[in-house]
Structures are given as structure tokens and as C-alpha cells.
Amino acid sequence: MLNTGTGWLARFAAILGGIVLIGLIIMTCLSITGRALIPLGLGPVPGDFELVEAGVAFSIFAFMPWCQYTRGHARVDLFQAAYGKFANKVIDLIADVMMFVAAYVIAWRLYLGMMDKYNYHETTFILQFEIWMAYAAGFFGAAVFVIVSAFCVLRSLRAIFIKPSELTA
After folding, report:
1. Running DSSP on this structure, what letter comes out for residue 38?
2. pLDDT tens across 110-165, in order?
């Protein structure tokens, strides 16, 4: 299934998102432990909620390309058995086109938000890091999501117009 560069790109983004989530879990555990041990001179990780906000947002966007590539998004397959193979391929194409449009709009608006935060130099309250950086991390995942969604549209078109025997050639 990963015989394309797009598949590897989607997988790389998902793995990166998973690494960030594992780091956030460790940081959250350390922060909670620090809060519990305040009498011993320890404390929470400063800005832990700011880091969780930015990290989880990045991870969500990083997982979306892999989910699209593997057709893992929620689907309603209620009528799928009633239609033939061709109709189901057309439904897949329509779903992929709609997801591409959604991915493009999300990436476009995220980019505009990132540029707005960059121009106004807005920072977080505790850590004082510029918010555009979190937007940029999310935009990376959103841009990969657009690329993967475009690939999925092409993959669905190919499935409709090319015979199954020619797909393996």
C-alpha cells in the first residue's frame, strides 16, 4: 500500500504526529507529578497547557493525511452493498473530491490565520512563544493533507477508468 511517495509522506506525517503525542503524554505526566510534589519543591511544567494545545493541534493535522490515504475516515456504507462496483468507485471519487475541497479550504484558512498571527506577533501568555509557530506546525500537516487528498482523487479516477488487470502492470 505504501508503493507511492504520497503513501510514505502520509505515513511520515502520522509517525511525526505520534511522536509529538508521546512527548506530550510524558510532559503532562511530569507536570502532574510536579503539581503533586509542590510541597517537596517541585512544580508543574511552565506553560504545559500551551504546549498541549499546539502539540495536539499539530498531531491532529499530521494524522489526517494517513487517514485519507488509507480511506480511514468515517463512512456511511449503508447502501454500498446495493450498488455495483462501478457505482461504489464513483461514490469513492465523489468522497475523495469532497475531502480534497475540505482539505484545501482548511489549509488555505490555516495559512491565512498563520500569516495574521505572524504579522501581529501575538504570543502565548506563559511561554511567550509566537503563536504563528503553532499555526505553521498545523499548516505542515494540512499541506500534506491537501497533497494526499489530491493523490486520492487521482487514485479514484484511475480506479474508474483503468481496468483492474492494468492497475497491476
Report:
1. G
2. 999 999 999 999 999 999 999 999 999 999 999 999 999 999 999 999 999 987 66
How far apart are the C-alpha atoms of 159 and 62, rounded to whole Å? 26
Mean local confidence (pLDDT), 16-31: 97
For residue 66, pLDDT over 90 is answered with yes
Contacts of 50-54 with CB under 8 Å at 24 or more apart are: 50/124, 50/125, 50/126, 50/127, 50/129, 51/24, 51/27, 51/127, 52/24, 52/27, 52/28, 53/134, 54/133, 54/134, 54/137
Residue type, 74: A
Is the distance from CB of 7 to CB of 1 less than 8 angstroms? Answer: yes
Number of domains comprising the chain? 1
Parent domain of 19? 5-167
In sign, the C-alpha dihedral spanning 95, 54, 144, 159 is negative
- Which residues partner with 130 through β-bridges? 123
Q: Hunting for cell 495536539 — which residue is that? A: 56
Give yes or no for a contact between 59 and 21, defined as CB atoms under 8 angstroms apart.
yes
Q: Cell numbers at residue 31, please?
A: 507536570
Distance CA 9, CA 15 (A): 10
